[in-house]
Amino acid sequence: MGAADAKAKRPLCFLLLGPPGAGKGTQSGIIARRTGVARISTGEMLRDAIARKTPLGEKAAPLMDYGNLVPDDLLVALIAERVALPDCTNGFLLDGFPRTVNQAAALDQLVKDRGMELVVMNFDVPRAVLLRRLSGRRWCPTCQATYHLETSPSKKLGICDNCGSSLIQRADDRENVVAKRLEAYEAQTVPVIQHYEKRFPVHRVDGYRDVNEVFAEIEQYLNGEPS
Ligand code: AP5
Q: Per-residue pLDDT for 192 more than 50?
């Protein structure tokens, strides 16, 4: 990706951090489409494992349904296996990982072992906006495309533009589960941001703007242009 060329000669490990509903999935999708970088979303991988009823999916489902995090050892193994694939040789983009300080420590080691450059971006979005985004989100269980009833509706109500499947609300987007996910974020993921801020600047992105404006800022930052 351009960022890797502009900011570092080493392969880039690019992290998108931020609370549930901040727009990480939306932006990581755009970045991957525009740059071709390998995009790794742990939430998508877990939902796929649940749909396929794999052993990982069986363990993850009851935790995710109640807004809890899946244990670190499972996630660390999942990431290690995924980044060993050839599409990650020249760098990758992580959405949803690391989410705990233990996961961050495992990633630090992986990045060191592979001689990669770490870039971390954190999305700020007010809580009331997160709640609106999550309650209006609709999701395709077949291809994992994401929509929003107001801000990015599908062309035909309730039908995925990409594959024609019926859209649903994610089980963890119910109001009581969202509250639990936000609690987990504050308790377990905010310390990850602090973990990185002790070592280097974490770029803060105002995520409460139009999708294209947010992407423009990310692109500018990755290209090393002043904002
Ligand atoms: P995951 O799928 O990663 O969920 P999340 O981090 O809670 O993030 P979301 O997918 O809810 O939000 P997002 O920031 O991607 O926002 P999006 O772009 O979709 O994880 C789910 C669960 O899996 C976790 O709770 C946990 O149990 C487990 N898990 C995953 N990773 C784990 C890990 N590392 N360790 C342990 N457990 C793990 O946008 C949201 C909505 O807003 C959409 O409708 C979108 O269209 C809309 N929107 C986006 N941007 C904008 C904008 N700029 N303006 C207006 N609307 C917008």
A: yes
Residue-number span of the structural domain to which 34 is assigned: 11-125+189-222
pLDDT tens digits for range 33-47: 999 999 999 999 999
Structural domain count of the chain: 1
Strands 117-124 and 203-206: what pairing? parallel
Q: Is residue 96 part of a domain?
A: yes
User: What pLDDT, on a 0 to 100 scale, did the predictor assign at position 4?
Assistant: 43
Q: State the Rg of the chain over Cα.
A: 17
Segments of the chain assigned E as strands: 12-17, 38-41, 91-95, 117-124, 137-139, 146-148, 203-206
Task: Of 153, 170, 178, give the one whose Cα is nearest residue 67.
Answer: 178
Ligand 1, residues at Cβ distance < 6 Å: 18, 20-26, 42-43, 46, 63-64, 67-70, 75, 96-97, 99, 103, 133, 137, 146, 148, 151-152, 172, 181, 211, 214
0.85 surpassed by pTM: yes
Residue range 71-89: average pLDDT?
97
184 lies in some domain = no
> Nearest residue CA, atom 20 of ligand 1?
43
- Residue with CA nearest ligand 1 atom 42: 133
| Mean pLDDT (the chain, rounded) | 94
The CATH number linked to 81 is: 3.40.50.300
- Which of the residues are catalytic? 24, 99, 137, 170, 181
